[in-house]
Give the backbone structure.
Amino acid sequence: MYRYDEYDQKIVEERVRQYRDQVRRRLSGELTEEEFMPLRLQNGLYMQIHAYMLRIAVPYGLISSKQMRMFAHIARKYDRDYGHFTTRQNIQFNWLKLEDTPDILADLATVQMHAIQTSGNCVRNITSDEYAGVARDEIVDPRAYAEILRQWSTFHPEFAYLPRKFKIAISGGKEDRAAIYAHDIGLGVTKNAHGEVGFRVLVGGGLGRTPMIGTEICEFVPWQHILTYVEAILRIYNLYGRRDNKYKARIKILVKALGIDEFKRQVEADWADLKDGPGTLTIEEVNRVASFFTAPPYETLTDHDSRLNEFKADSRSFSNWMLRNVKPHRVPGYAIVVLSLKKPGNAPGDATAEQMEAVADLADRYSFGELRITHQQNLVLADVRQTDLIRLWQEATVHELTAPNIGLLTDIISCPGADFCTLANARSIPLAKLIAERFEDLDFQHDIGEITLNMSGCVNACGQHHIGNIGITGVEKKDHGEWYQVSLGGAEGNNSSIGKIIGPSFTFNQVPEVIDRILQVYLRERIEAERFIDTVRRIGHTPFKEHVYATDFAAEEEEIADKHVVVPAQYAAPYYSPRF
Amino acid sequence: MIIKNKTIVADDWVVLRLSEQESAENVTVAPGKVIVPLQVWLKQRDVLQQRAEIGVWLASDERPEDLKDVIDKFSVIAVDFPKFSDGRGYSIAYNLRARLGYQGELRAIGDVLRDQLFYMQRVGFDAFAPRPDRKIEDALKGLADFSEAYQTSIDRKLPLFRRLQRKESSAAGSINE
C-alpha cells in the first residue's frame, strides 16, 4: 500500500499544527462556533447528541495492521473502547472531547493517517473497490489512481468551499463494487480497444433527499487527463451549483437543471484550456504511485486443498463461512476473506478495540499486514493462503468476526442513527439489531440468499437506503414519533437502481414484521434460484405492497419498545448538544 | 490596513458598496481611488475609464469574462466573499489569473478570515482585506499554514509530482515499520 514520503508527512503534520491552533482559538472564544464549524467539519469533527464525533479517513479503504492498532489505541485512550466503520470506508469515534482531538490527529500522523476532508463541503475521501488488486474480474487496478486523486483533492485550494459535499468513487473491475453510480463523480477505470487505460466518467449520482443514478459524461477519458477533467467538473460545479438551498446544492441538481449535454459542453469548454497543461498526469508519477500497489510476494500454490473439504464436511459453521465470507482470489491457492462486523446482536460496523487488535494480528499472520474496509461496513483480509483458512476461521471466531452472513439478510448496512446523530429522525442501530435477531436463523437466511438491507435514520442516506434491495429510512412526522419508510428495488453495482417506497410508514416495532411479509411474497413468487432483487424487478411492487398492508399489525407492546431504547451514556464534561 | 504581498500595509482605496437607494446608473463615484462594483463599471464605463486609477469588484455570482477586453485598465480587482463559506470567489480568482491573464492586484474583500487565506493565496489573490473585527496580524499567519501543496494552481504552476523527485515504493520503508 501507499507510504508517505517527506512531503506527504509534512503536509499532514502542518495540518495537525493548523488544526491545534484552530481548536485553541475556538476554546478561547476567538473563533465563534459558526466560524469554527466548517473548519472542524473539514477535519471530520461533528458535534453529535452526546459528544463530539471524529471521522478518520481510510483512503479507499486500505489500511495496515499498524494503522488498525492505532485505531484500537484511540478507542482505548480517548473513546469508549470501540469505533464504527462507515459506508465510505472510514472509521468514526463517537465519544470524544474537543480538547483531545488535536492529540488524536498527532497520534494519527505518526502512522500516516489523518481526518482531512472527511466531512464539509469539499471533496471527501475517495472510495474504491474493496477487492482492488485481487479480484478476478479486474480490468485495471484502481488503487494508484485512487491515491493520485487523494493527493490531488487534499487541500485543493479552489474546491474547499463547494456548494455541498462532493464524493468520488473509483472502480476497476468488470463488476462495480464501489457504488460508482451513487457518487457525485463515479470513475470506472478501464481499457479501450487499443489497450490504453482511461476512465469512464459518471457524474451527478448521489443519494440523500433527491436520489439519482449518475449519468455518463464521458465514455473514455485517457488516464493522462483524468485530473484535469475532474478539475473542470469541479470548477463548473463550484461556480454554478446552487447555494441558496442546501437540499438542492449537490451537483446532481445542477446536472439535471442544465441537462447532461449542456453540462458536458461547459465542462469540456473549461477542460479545453487545462488539457495537456501542467495538471496532466505523467507516466513517471503513475508508475511511482503504482509501485506501492504491486502484488505481495505470493507463493506458488494450487487451489486444491483436501483438508479444507474434510473440514467443511465436519463443520457446518465453517462450510457456511466458506460459502458466504470467502471470495475467489486471482492468484491460485489464495482467497479473499471477509470478516463480518454484522454478528446479530451487535451494531453493524462497530468494532471493539480488542477486535481491532485481533484483526491487526490476523492481518500480520495471514495477509501481509494489510486490511481493507468495505462500504458494506465489514473488514477484508485480501491475501490469505487457502491452507490458512481453517486456522484463521478458528482464531477470528474467538473474536466474533465470522458470522457467515456476507451478502445475506443480516449483513445490514446502517448509519449510526438517532442514538448519536443530530440529523436522524429515528434510530437505526437498535432496529438493525432487532431485525438481525428476528432473522438470525441461518438456514432461513441461506434460503433467502443474496439480498441487501440498507438503513438510514434520515433522508441524508448515510446508510445508502436507496440502493438497498430493501431500504429503510427514518422519516420526519409532525408527531415527532419514530417512523420508518420501507422501499424496495434499490441496487448497487452495474445494474444500479433507486428503490421505490411501498407505502405509508411504519413504527419501530412493525418493521421486522414488514420485512417478514416482504420475504413471504418473495418465497411465494420466486422462480428457481431467482435473487430477491430479480423477483422484485420481474413482478413489481404491487404484490409486496398488497401483502404488507393486507392485515393489521399486532398491537404495540410498550415493554418491547423500551427494551431497545439505548440509554444515553453520561458525559462528564459539560456539552452543548445541538439536539436538546 | 490590508495584507499585500504577505505584509501589512496602509491602504487608501475605498470600496464602494451600493445602498438600497442607490443604483449602478445613478450612484456618484467619489473622486480618488475607488473600487466600484462591476455593475457600476459597466453602467458608467465611459466616465470611469477616463480616471487614472480605478478598481472594480465582483460579487460571487458575477463573472469576470465581462472585463476581458479592459482587464489591464484596473489598478486593482477585488472579489467579494459575502460569507467565507461561499467558495465561488476562488474559481473567479482562478479564471481572472489563468484565463483572463490579469496581472495586477487581486484583492479578497468581505468575510475574509485567517483560516481561508492560504487557499486564497494559492488561487491568485495577493491582497487581503481581513474582516475589520479581527486582528490583521493574526490573519497574516494564515498565509503560512502550509509549506507544501500537491496541486497546480496560480501560485505554484506545477503540481508536486512535476516539481520534486518523489519516493518510489522501494525507498519508502515497509508499511508496518
Observations:
- The first strand of chain A starts at residue 45 and ends at 47.
- The longest helix of chain A spans residues 6-27.
- Residues 6-109 of chain A form a domain with the Sulfite Reductase Hemoprotein; domain 2 fold (CATH 3.90.480.20).
- The radius of gyration of chain A is 23 Å.
